[in-house]
Amino acid sequence: MSSIDHFWAVIPAGGAGTRLWPLSRSSAPKFLHDLSGSGRTLLQETRDRLAPLAEDRIVVVTGEPHREAVLAQLTELAADSVVAEPAPRDSMAAIGLAAALLERRDPDAVMGSFAADHVVADPEAFRDAVRRAVAAAREDWLVTLGIEPTFPSSAFGYVHVGDPLPGLEGASAVREFVEKPSVATAEAYLATGSYRWNAGMFVVRPTVLLDLLHQWHPEFADALRAIAAEPARLAELWPTLPKIAVDHAVAEPAADAGRVAVVPSSFPWEDIGDFDALATLLSRGQDEAGPVVLGDPSMVLSVDSTGLVVPSAGRVVAVVGLDDVVVVDTPDALLVTTRARAQEVKQVVAALKDGGRDQLT
Amino acid sequence: MSSIDHFWAVIPAGGAGTRLWPLSRSSAPKFLHDLSGSGRTLLQETRDRLAPLAEDRIVVVTGEPHREAVLAQLTELAADSVVAEPAPRDSMAAIGLAAALLERRDPDAVMGSFAADHVVADPEAFRDAVRRAVAAAREDWLVTLGIEPTFPSSAFGYVHVGDPLPGLEGASAVREFVEKPSVATAEAYLATGSYRWNAGMFVVRPTVLLDLLHQWHPEFADALRAIAAEPARLAELWPTLPKIAVDHAVAEPAADAGRVAVVPSSFPWEDIGDFDALATLLSRGQDEAGPVVLGDPSMVLSVDSTGLVVPSAGRVVAVVGLDDVVVVDTPDALLVTTRARAQEVKQVVAALKDGGRDQLT
């Protein structure tokens, strides 16, 4: 399969991953880590997944503090392929800035935006979906990939899939985006067969995205285009941009205006939000007794235990008589919890911040 | 209170403390550790408890590999106060060797043997009991201290207390020693009020001990006296000594022969066999929520958890949503278990040995 002419992959690399502490830190967020045991970090896997489509047309948008780490992990990138945000201003600013830069750089560009910290198990199926999305984006649709739900999650937003778009294979109109529902509502969605998870994957011509933004937030779009025209104004204009997600700023109103398409997709996808999700991901296809291990299995000794052990400090970790335990060992901090309580790890991070120990967060 | 003339404190310092791994190691057994958070190790506390009675008449019997560590912890000891066993040969050999050496050194000696790794909460009450035991030992009794049972333990042997000994305040004859009973039997013992725990604390004139040993194991007693007479023969004779506990070799048959007395005592006593016992010890008198901490409490962050945390590697330990958990953090090994499963830690040590990782045990 060949690459796609004028296709640009935009990789927003942000988010602290607080619930993955102490592995993920503000100084080294989730996307910089190998969470699949593949030997590649989430950021590197995201790049690997997109390179066959985009070749070297890859733009990473990340926070200024992570610029060097991103370049160190993606050695094939040119330095000007990493756009550093002076401060985090949510996803519309990050993706909009990339769009404004690409609009000037390549008038025929179609961009696809894919978060740096997602896991996709079948890259070929992913790329097939992107190809279909690009075809629809060339017809001026704002296109989202609709992930096939595997359970009635209340943690994701949903896309309500409408009628197929004539002449655009595998693409349908979007009726609406719906916010994270209750589990009961999610079960009803799944029963209809016409709802998909919204994974925040958008494929669109940069000009279309900015023009849509201009409809509802004209000053926002103007500011982004002003920065692209005159990059020296970044520091001045960036702090004036609204902090808003691309979903709220553009995707939802554009769907109501009949401008959004969805490519329903069936590749396995994970947003590894916490250690419970990570344990699920790593235990897939493993029938062995004992906890799953992210790292060197010879460093873990288990007696009658299950769960997840991350021995990343080079020390032996012994677990005796605990079910669904989570042990994450790092050189300066250790976490012990259970899969069921994994969400509450953020309380530890909050306590560390409150206690003035930010260097550990 | 003054010291006791000719009283010699013998401290057998042996035992690996396998169930306290990874804190306790064969290279640094239990008695070398501060398990009470007092700032003093169990060995140092044992010495501190005995020094008011024995002054500098203290003899530590330990394995050759631990001789230097013992001297480093007990800086007030003369080098010849530490007797190094060439290899472990159980308690009769260790205590008998000390007896044979003292028999030659001080014909009026009364020795008291107290393990280096026990915890005694009321040292003054302990010393009162020893004083009474010494008075009986001067009358040629083999005297044991009988610990008041606090629950029907099946982990300790018991002493059956007989009639008071006329003229020896607080001392009674021993009817018999009984091996570790079932919990039901232990309950029956406690109901009678005439059974005490056998903590292996013996007070006796060295000559009486060796003469008793000679009755049942004449060659054993002869060999010990030969070593004392000619220390150069230690390496030759030591490997010939039977591996037997002092209880079986002497105390039990001597009790049957009506030669053993008991001083029933009420000082709080603990043999910290595992992390469950350690948690019990440390939580005494603590009403705070959260796990008990052996070490610096500021290194432990707890969310809705109880149990025991030992942060001895200088790293932050966070525990979230686990009841009765045990987390022991050391620089090269980490243990996570529960109080209920703490006994099974020895399986980890066995697995490490099997895997050729003896340096971690």
From TrEMBL, chains A, B:
It comes from the Bacteria. Residues 300-352 form the MannoseP isomerase/GMP-like beta-helix domain. The keyword Lipid metabolism does not apply. The keyword Disulfide bond does not apply. GO terms for biological process: GDP-mannose biosynthetic process. Gene3D superfamilies: Spore Coat Polysaccharide Biosynthesis Protein SpsA, Chain A. This is NTP transferase domain-containing protein. It comes from Nocardioides agri.
